[in-house]
Amino acid sequence: MREDIFIESDFAYTDTRLACPECDLVHAIADINEGEQGRCTRCGALLFVRHRNSLDRSLAFALTGFLFFILANMFPLLTFELDGRSQSNRLIDGAIAFLNEGYWELGIVVFVSSVLAPMMVLIVLISLLLPLRLNRLPFNPQFQIRMLMHLRPWAMSEIFILGIIVAFVKLSDFAEVSVGLSLFAFVLMVAATVMAYLTLDDEALWSRLDEVKS
Ligand SMILES: [Zn+2]
């Protein structure tokens, strides 16, 4: 770690300032490079990290997630067997079942959280990061970055997975339930999306946008 990354501020600085979460010492932030991390000059607490190749890693996770999204929609999620009859359910069938029963609000929420939002998150990530990788300016980057921030809570579909597990446990009492390939793909898709968000460094994103613009 570089010692000169942070300069102890005497409040004469107009740079962006950051207070140490452990000891409250205020630091003025100088430019730091990818792969470096900023630590408090007094107590050594981690202030922030700049990941190496943040954008490439995030793009790789988003592309992987999109592949799993396609797989999750191609195969059955759960298969029920009762009295010799078997029924397979795809990801989209949860929403369709609610709509058919007349619970259209619930149907829409399930559709948005299980299909639409995860797909949107991955599409926005790819349409933002892929052009940058190819040295092109993405379409309306400010709007896409804002969308990513708004979609962040929807990227965490753990609740949906939890719902499937609860349904699985309850149904297995009176029907033969087997887990389809789709469920594994869905879990991996959620994991890849969370990783895409975690590795995406805002700072690196903005500086890459500036680079491509000029
Ligand atoms: Zn400190």
Automatic annotation (TrEMBL):
Q: Does the keyword Cell membrane apply?
A: yes
Transmembrane region(s): 59-80, 108-130, 151-169, 181-200
Q: Which UniProt keywords apply?
A: Cell inner membrane, Cell membrane, Membrane, Transmembrane, Transmembrane helix
Q: In which compartments does the protein localize?
A: Cell inner membrane
* InterPro entries noted in UniProt: PqiA-like, PqiA-PqiB_transport
In terms of domain of life, where is this protein from? Bacteria
Q: Do the record's keywords include Transmembrane?
A: yes
Q: What is its main location?
A: membrane
Tell me what this protein is called.
Answer: Paraquat-inducible protein A
Organism of derivation: Sneathiella marina
Lineage of the native species?
A: Bacteria, Pseudomonadati, Pseudomonadota, Alphaproteobacteria, Sneathiellales
